[in-house]
Amino acid sequence: MHLTGRLIFVKPKKVGGSTLEFLLSSVCDSGDALTPLSIHEDCRRYQRDYQLPVNVFASTSDEHAYHHVIKSLCENINEIGLASSKVNQPGLWRKAQLLKMHARVKNHASLRDIQAFVGKEAFWTTPLVSICRHPYELAVSQASWDLRKGEVTSFDEALDAVVSKPHLNLRRYGLHRRWRGKRTPFTLILRLEELDDGLRHLAALTRCEMKAEVPRLKSGVRFDERPAGAILTYAQKQAMERHNRPLFDLWDNPPSL
Asked: For 119, which of 74, 78, 81, 204 is 20 to 30 Å away at the CA?
């Protein structure tokens, strides 16, 4: 998300980024740049009168078509329910998915892609904002997501795969305390676990009062709702700390206003 002159939001994976992106869209307008979320979530944006994805599609006609599809889906959601809308309106869902593919900047865009989209000057002069969560919770959420997508055959296999290598959030988004030997370029990185308290920082950057209600999107992905510390084995915790030490350092002391 690029809130022109206010902030650039970088959305990592499995750390509550959709929640923060959804929340920020409440203070955006048609002059900002917002990427699509899931179709369900964009329907919720429309229902709450938040800004729909804008200024990221390959053409204005694609943008207008996507907005029309979301609005059309929402017209019947109150009658048939959001969960049933995909079954009852498969053509609209498919059209929305195809239009999302035509966005110039994808959801979870890398720092390199974001800089190319907003321009080097804006990238280095606009506050760069992101979000983190405790690395154990990140590991469990990522493993749950990979299992749900069918990339692995068991939850233990998924966990072992996640903790045995540097997470994508380090490679793609540069979530380090020091970045390429220099201070991190991020102005503010909020903790998911303390997001309610972080709203005042977002209010300062956006110069708008943030919504008091914080939605918990994608909360149904995890198969095991216990705290991650109770799910991971000692060996898995050790592996996560060995391969992802910068994420622990970030969570302990994230950049803050």
From this structure: 204
